[in-house]
Write a structure and sequence with these properties.
108 residues; mainly alpha; Arc Repressor Mutant, subunit A; three-stranded antiparallel sheet; 5 helices; 11% strand; globular
Length: 108
């Protein structure tokens, strides 16, 4: 019976490692993601147009980046005051990653 539970535990650990690897691959291979995250670090509550104007990403890229950041809970979205206005806010997890990016930039 222990072998059965051991195999289940091993499969779970393997799946979690793959999930973590997939997250790293998604986040750290997307061009422009760091610039959007760093922009939101200083300009929390910005809308998509403002983010687009202040980063080097194009419209298609910014949509993909925002989707990835929301999916991995690095940013959240909230409705603004105006009709159809969507505002983007960085989460604690997003602040932590942005802080690490800044640390790396300071070493370069």
């Amino acid at each position: 019976m222990n072998r059965y539970y051991d195999s289940i535990i091993e499969k779970y650990i393997k799946a979690m490692k793959m999930k973590k690897k997939d997250m790293h691959d998604e986040l750290f291979t997307q061009a422009g993601l760091a610039s959007v995250l760093l922009y939101l670090l200083d300009h929390d509550g910005s809308n998509q147009k403002t983010i687009l104007e202040n980063t080097r990403a194009n419209t298609i890229t910014i949509n993909k980046i925002q989707h990835l950041l929301i999916k991995h809970k690095l940013i959240t979205i909230k409705k603004g005051e105006y009709y159809n206005q969507v505002l983007y806010f960085i989460t604690g997890k997003g602040r932590g990653i942005a802080g690490k990016i800044l640390e790396i930039e300071s070493l370069l």
